[in-house]
């Protein structure tokens, strides 16, 4: 379970070291891109628990969601429609759903482990 | 758990990218928030008034420094003027006592070798020239100053010496001053020329537009000191 954390840590380090300069005006679009990326990443973890994980779907989803979210937000700005909000709500809702599922799966696993341990102990006794 | 190998790498990559994205966005957001257009109006007003205060302070400082600069440059100018005045003074005084070569209108008095001239006659001529307001006098190339000696040489009473050096003939006395006045002074009835005529000495007097008189060497100053300083 340490893989995502390690990846995140390395990513944070790389980002800190590289110090990529982005104009302040883009902050809004980048923020929505980050939200989309978070959603994709947690969606990937959820799919592991649901045992229908697919690397292609995760990676393409990650990139296309990120880019599309930023592009849509930008387009919305140009058209005067706050597509930004739509993206925030859509990704935000999904993010929380994914997180809830992950939490439940984790809890289930822990309970299972405990039960199996207890069972083992009972058997050995 | 058999799928572990399948998910590890893609998830790892995804989270690395996520981490990079998050840091970049964090940075961007920080700079965006620090941007002036994102500041509240009150903050902007405060910043403006602070800047104005600083500007006023700096302007005052500038005024003070400007004044200082003006004072200093005035001082420098004064100093330069003083130096120039002093140099002018020194030059004038050196000119007056005959230390530097000078030029100007005047007359020359030529005495040829056949004249039986004695040192007294030279002194008479020079006294007469001083009397006629000559400003600088030279005998041949010897500047006549307040410490010039005119005498005869030890062995021959007819040989005239100036500052201990025998003068050669023709002896030319150069005097700078008003040429007419100088000539008049010499030609005065019963004056120097009349006296010399008694001994068959007839100096040739020429008025000149521009004459040059050499400078004398600095005299010894060993014992005397200005009275005011002692």
Q: Could you please describe the fold and organization of this structure?
A:
The complex is a heterodimer of chains A (125) and B (230). Chain A has one domain. Helix content of chain A is 86%, strand content 0%. Chain A has four helices and no strands. In chain A, helix 2 runs parallel beside helix 4. Chain A starts with a helix and ends with a helix. The mean pLDDT of chain A is 86. Chain B has five helices and eight strands. Chain B has three domains: 30 residues; 59 residues; 113 residues, 2-Layer Sandwich (Alpha-Beta Plaits). Chain B has 230 residues and is of the alpha+beta class. Chain B is rod-shaped, with a radius of gyration of 46 Å. In chain B, the strands form two sheets. Chain B has a five-stranded antiparallel beta sheet, covered by helices on one side. A three-stranded antiparallel beta sheet of chain B has the order 4-5-6, covered by helices on one side. Chain B is 51% helix and 18% strand. At the A-B interface, helix 1, helix 2 and helix 3 of A face helix 1 of B.
What characteristics describe this protein?
heterodimer, A: 125 residues, mainly alpha, 4 helices, 0% strand, elongated, B: 230 residues, alpha+beta, Alpha-Beta Plaits, 3 domains, five-stranded antiparallel β-sheet, three-stranded antiparallel β-sheet, 5 helices
List the helices and strands and how they pair.
The complex is a heterodimer of chains A (125) and B (230).
Chain A: H1 2-18, H2 27-49, H3 55-79, H4 83-124
Helix pairs in contact in A: 2-3, 2-4, 3-4
Chain B: H1 4-34, H2 41-97, E1 102-111, H3 119-131, E2 136-139, E3 142-144, E4 150-152, E5 160-162, E6 165-166, E7 171-176, H4 179-187, H5 192-198, E8 204-213
């Amino acid at each position: 379970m340490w893989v995502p954390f390690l990846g995140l840590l390395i990513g944070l380090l790389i980002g800190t070291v590289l110090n990529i300069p982005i104009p302040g005006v883009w902050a809004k679009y980048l923020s929505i891109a980050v939200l989309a990326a978070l959603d994709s990443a947690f969606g990937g973890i959820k799919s592991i628990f649901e045992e229908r994980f697919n690397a292609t779907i995760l990676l393409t989803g990650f990139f296309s969601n990120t880019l599309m979210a930023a592009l849509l937000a930008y387009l919305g700005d140009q058209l005067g429609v706050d597509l930004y909000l739509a993206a925030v709500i859509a990704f935000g809702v999904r993010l929380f759903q994914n997180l809830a599922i992950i939490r439940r799966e984790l809890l289930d696993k822990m309970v299972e482990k405990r039960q199996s341990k207890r069972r083992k102990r009972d058997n050995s006794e | 758990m058999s799928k572990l190998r399948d998910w590890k790498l893609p998830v790892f990559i995804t989270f690395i990218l996520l981490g990079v994205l998050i840091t970049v966005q964090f940075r961007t957001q920080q700079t965006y928030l620090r941007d002036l257009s994102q500041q509240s109006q009150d903050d902007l007003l405060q910043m403006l008034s602070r800047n104005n205060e600083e500007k006023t302070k700096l302007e005052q400082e500038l005024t003070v420094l400007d004044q200082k600069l003006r004072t200093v440059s005035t001082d420098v100018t004064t100093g330069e003027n003083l130096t120039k005045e002093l140099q002018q003074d020194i030059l004038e005084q050196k000119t007056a006592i005959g230390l530097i070569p000078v030029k100007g209108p005047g007359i020359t008095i030529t005495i040829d070798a056949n004249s039986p001239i004695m040192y007294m006659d030279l002194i008479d001529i020079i006294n007469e020239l001083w009397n006629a307001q000559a400003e600088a006098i030279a005998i041949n190339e010897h500047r006549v100053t307040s410490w010039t000696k005119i005498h005869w040489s030890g062995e021959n009473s007819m040989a005239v010496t100036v500052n201990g050096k025998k003068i050669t003939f023709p002896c030319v006395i150069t005097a700078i001053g008003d040429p007419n006045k100088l000539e008049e002074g010499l030609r005065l009835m019963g004056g120097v020329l009349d006296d010399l005529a008694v001994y068959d000495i007839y100096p040739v007097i020429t008025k000149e537009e521009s004459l040059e008189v050499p400078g004398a060497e600095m005299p010894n100053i060993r014992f005397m000191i200005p009275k005011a300083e002692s």
